[in-house]
Write a structure and sequence with these properties.
mainly alpha; about 0% strand; about 190 residues; 9 helices; single chain; globular
Length: about 190
């Protein structure tokens, strides 16, 4: 198999699934691929660039989020799909957060923009993208950290993250949509 950026990212993702972020090093990845570490740098300029590419790959697993009957329904589906993508890889939330900070493309922006356009939320897309992404990554990071702690210490008390996620997402959506209603009323009064 020829070494390509795709094969490097694929192998990095496999390594992350097996060993998490602490087990991910360029040396370990190179050994897995049967090459010297310097060979990796022909395809990715740094470990950060590799993690950014991995973050984009993780985000791409969100899959398409179809139109729903309501803005809340669509945004809920987007948040749920994002959570499934980042929690589907050990330390995925941390990897995606690192990748986004380094400039990874966030597909959430595109689907939130489309949902906002369909439901007349116009100027709310950027704020909703930020809020939704930050909420999902933050809670997913807490969830994955808790999982890691529980593996290391089985006496770690359990936490019901599904319920916490749902409650927090509903609160976020209620607040965002309430602002939109206020904005529309304000626009009608000014018109």
């Amino acid at each position: 198999m020829a070494l390509t950026k795709t094969s490097v990212v694929d192998s990095a993702l496999d390594l992350l699934r097996e060993a998490g972020l602490p087990g991910m090093s360029m040396r370990t990845l190179a050994t897995r691929l049967g090459v010297q570490p310097s060979a990796l740098y022909w395809h990715v300029p740094s470990k950060q660039a590799l993690l950014t590419a991995v973050a984009e790959r993780v985000l791409a697993t969100m899959g398409p989020v179809g139109a729903a009957g309501s803005a809340a329904g669509e945004l809920r589906a987007i948040g749920t799909a994002l959570r499934a993508a980042v929690t589907g890889v050990p330390d995925g939330a941390e990897i995606v957060a690192l990748g986004l900070a380094a400039g990874a493309v966030n597909p959430v922006a595109e689907v939130v923009e489309a949902a906002c356009t369909r439901h007349g939320l116009g100027g709310r897309a950027a704020g909703l993208t930020t809020a939704l992404t930050a909420y999902v990554l933050g809670l997913s990071l807490e969830e994955q950290t808790h999982h890691n702690l529980a593996v290391a210490d089985p006496a770690t008390p359990p936490v019901e993250f599904d319920a916490r996620f749902s409650a927090g997402l509903e609160a976020l959506l209620a607040g965002a949509l309430a602002f939109s209603v206020v904005d529309r009323r304000r626009e009608r009064r000014c018109a």
